[in-house]
Amino acid sequence: CPFNLQTDETSILRRENCRTKGGSSGFKVAILGAAGGIGQPLAMLMKMNPLVSVLHLYDVVNSPGVTADISHMDTSAVVRGFLGQQQLGSALTGMDLVIIPAGVPRKPGMTRDDLFNINAGIVKTLCEGIAKCCPHAIVNLISNPVNSTVPIAAEVFKKAGTYDPKRLLGVTMLDVVRANTVVAEVLGIDPREVDVPVIGGHAGITILPLLSQVKPPSSFTPQEINYLTDRIQNGGTEVVEAKAGAGSATLSMAYSAAKFADACLRGLKGDAGIVECAFVASEVIELPFFASKVRLGRTGVEEIYPLGPLNEYERMGLEKAKKELAASIAKGISFIRK
Ligand code: NAI
């Protein structure tokens, strides 16, 4: 039985009935790793999302406190908490969208790949639960190294016979959010007016902002291009160093994850023209997984857009990124296959 400190089970049912009668059904969303640095603010933001009717908060520690806290927010989503592996199945059953920020973050001096040994096993266990309890859910994978954890999740789902590449998305939204912010700073405009496609993957040189495709159309000097590319590729490290051992990006990541989850839910609802960048199974280049612009719809990723024209600088960046990306993808796949 999940614990619920918001209210008793009868009144939850009463509220769910009310909502059904009112005709405003929403989506059921689970956050795995909900008590963490990303998980907590993300839980708060998802509780504020009017498209969410039920919010399940799962973690191996501290989820009762987070659930009690979040449940006092006077928004309509019903919140339930789940603690420990034994409750994973209940946390996942019936979910439309599962967001995974579970795992350890970087400390200064670490690369995302240094997290592989711990996070690969965590992602494997959680995806086995998804395959069993909500095989049709959309999965938003945040745990690093994303370039390897997405292939791990795909292999787990293939083994279970539930793999649908349209429903598995590595979250690279923070790279786009950072790119929009720094490009807006350089252009001296509001970041909400800026759209920078960021392709490739989610680690160092695999993060490839396409500054030649920025909207509104803009041109940059070579110095600006070097500066912007460096800030976008190393934004995560900038935060890890500033936090000096206390973790990696959590607040900007929770914002980005909530923005991305909202796009997935609007797609599920049937809204048209929902386009975001994500790390997905792809055929846009020769690698089996790649981040690029995708259109989100009722079945998840409904279209993957071609990269569009790249300039010489971007083509060189892509060539450099491919080698690292290929190795990270292979590492994830072999973690499950071996
Ligand atoms: P954190 O350590 O603050 O929180 C992680 C949470 O996961 C903890 O509450 C922990 O108890 C939980 N957890 C550990 N094992 C679990 C399991 N087996 N099942 C469920 N929950 C489990 O870490 P933080 O800062 O929230 O980061 C989480 C992950 O997100 C890290 O891997 C980090 O590298 C990644 N990240 C990804 C970004 C992206 O752009 N995709 C950006 C920033 C971080």
Give the biggest beta sheet. 6 strands, parallel
What distance lies between the first and last C-alpha atoms, to the nearest angstrom?
A: 36 Å
Portion of residues within helices: 40-55%
- Beta-strand share of residues: 15-25%
> Could you say which structural class the secondary elements and strand pairing correspond to?
alpha/beta
Spans of at least 5 consecutive residues with low confidence: 17-23
- How many helical elements? 11
Q: What's the overall average pLDDT, rounded?
A: 94
Ligand list: 1,4-dihydronicotinamide adenine dinucleotide
Strand order in the largest sheet: 3-2-1-4-5-6
Tally of DSSP β-strands = 11
Order of helices and strands: HEHEHEHEHEHEHEEHHHEEEH
Rg, Å, rounded: 20 Å
Shape: globular
